Amino acid sequence: MQELRDKYIQAIGSAADEAALEELRVQAVGKKGEISLKMRELGRMTPEERQTAGPALNALKDEINSALAAKKTALADAALDERLQAEWLDVTLPGRDRRVGSIHPVSQVWEECTAIFADMGFAVAEGPQVEDDWYNFDALNIPGHHPARAEMDTFYMHRAAGDDRPPHVLRTHTSPVQIRAMQAQGAPIRVIAPGRVYRADYDQTHTPMFHQVEGLAIDRDISMANLKWVLEEFFSAYFGTKVKTRFRASHFPFTEPSAEVDIQCSWEGGTVKVGEGDDWLEVLGSGIVHPKVLEAAGVDPSQWQGFAFGMGIDRIAMLKYGIPDLRAFFDSDLRWLRHYGFSALQVPTLRGGI
Ligand code: 2U9
Q: How far apart are CA 210 and CA 212, in angstroms?
């Protein structure tokens, strides 16, 4: 009995894992284990023998069960210690930076313009960025020989030998969109055309791709007075303060008369503030749509007339948000966006607020 005890107590003490322990349990105290078999032999013993062997076997069984339980706990503790060592975590380390996206100022301003003009009844029109030269030039009263074609630094699409379609260009303005809109729906019409435009020009204030929003309102008796009201209403909503405009006579092939439009501003310490002071800042071109342009778009100029205007979205975005360098718009480092306070999309309306 002592031998049996020593054998199991020692084996349990040196068991490497739970599986080895289980094997020992089955061998010793399992149904067909050594101690169980010995207990069965009790029946064949004399009462006297049984009186000493019985309690001794029970005590041995208890001792082995306790040793098994103690070893099981010890193994589990050791396993936990090992895990705690291996999976050690420094909770004092700073958290990982979460990358937060943000709206691009040009997209923001694009939406702002759309919302304000929508409040004045202008629908949004869209069109292709690759145009044929009729839509981009001829329909807008810019014939083949016109110097404006050369001045616009147009990107011409490559043409394969034998391609006899009219020349295609990357649109230099969004005006072709309004030609298409008039062809499609005729007059009266009130649309704006925001979108990307392309000119082969690159310096501090020009990028080969930029954004315009143009507007067109054609009806029976639209005048420059309506244009001035719409623009002042727009700029006041956009800058969130009453903004005066100044019209200067100008010339564009597609409008007659034409005007360049300045907005009221002040210059102090190198920063411009819109809607105060007595300086002026040029932001826009406009005029009464040329009869030839209406005709090209299938609208009878003896029945209909109206205004058109065009401005650079990038430029008015820089003005509103105080972004000094156009090239920031094309920077892939997003920290500057946060610097200018861009987060989610917020759109102003004519009814005020942002
Ligand atoms: C149609 C008829 C006329 C749109 C106009 C301008 C004057 C203009 C510039 C402003 C800054 C382009 O982005 S910019 O460089 N635009 O000066 N645009 S009138 O006239 C139109 C448009 C469509 C059918």
A: 7
pTM for the model stands at: 0.72
Q: How far is the CA of 46 from the centre of ligand 1 (A)?
A: 120
Reported as a single tens digit per residue, the pLDDT across 199-254 is 999 887 889 999 999 999 999 999 999 999 999 999 999 999 999 999 999 999 99
Residue nearest to atom 18 of ligand 1 (CA): 310
Compute CA 195 distance to the chain's CA centroid, rounded to the nearest angstrom: 18
Ligand 1 proximity of 179 Cβ (cutoff 6 Å): yes
Instruction: Indicate which residue's Cα is closest to atom 16 of ligand 1.
Output: 310
- pLDDT (tens digit per residue) in 21-52: 999 899 998 889 888 888 888 888 888 888 88
Overall size of the chain counted in residues: 354
